[in-house]
Amino acid sequence: MSEESGAIDSQTFRKVMATWHTGVSIITCMTSEKKPVGILCNSLTSISLVRKLLLWTVDHNSGSYSHWVKAESWAVHFLADDQLGLIERFARKGVPDKFEGLEYTVSSFGTPVLDGAVGRLECRTTDRFETFDHTIILGEVIAMSSSEKEPMIFAYSKFHQGPKRDIK
């Protein structure tokens, strides 16, 4: 099962990383032209409970990359297991306006907000770091909300309904 680092190719790395179950999110912001933009993302994590910091990454080849490196505020929507249509919409490449015909509101912080998420975190960008093919974006949480809905999970390169909670 183990391979030395010099022998690991991208496909093998991707296959192993697919075994890591993640949540599914859409991150949204407003462009400098005041148009909403969003990206499907599962490369995010909280990194501090003291300062409430989130970290996520955006691929340099993303069609919306130029907006993320300028965005001062953004919202993370943790998607529910009934939001597959929204996931499919934001996963499509080459679509110029993923918000066309989509209902959303604008929060008091100026970020596009989507309904129906399991949880939402609105953040202000605190830093950005360039890596080989992605930019790491760090943000401080300034507002949040959650619901009792069930999460969507991504594993083995597919979407799955999350485990049901035993709510008493």
Describe this structure in words.
- This protein has about 170 residues and is mainly beta.
- It has helices at about 10-15, 65-70, 85-90; strands spanning about 20-25, 25-30, 35-40, 45-50, 55-60, 75-80, 105, 110-115, 120-130, 135-145, 150-155, 160.
- The relative contact order is 0.22.
- Strands 3-2-6-9-10-5-4 form a 7-stranded antiparallel sheet.
- About 10% of the residues lie in helices and about 40% in strands.
- A hairpin with a 5-residue loop joins strand 2 and strand 3 (about 35-40).
- The chain has 3 helices and 12 strands; from the N terminus they run H-E-E-E-E-E-H-E-H-E-E-E-E-E-E.
- The protein starts with 9 loop residues before the first helix and ends in a 7-residue tail after the last strand.
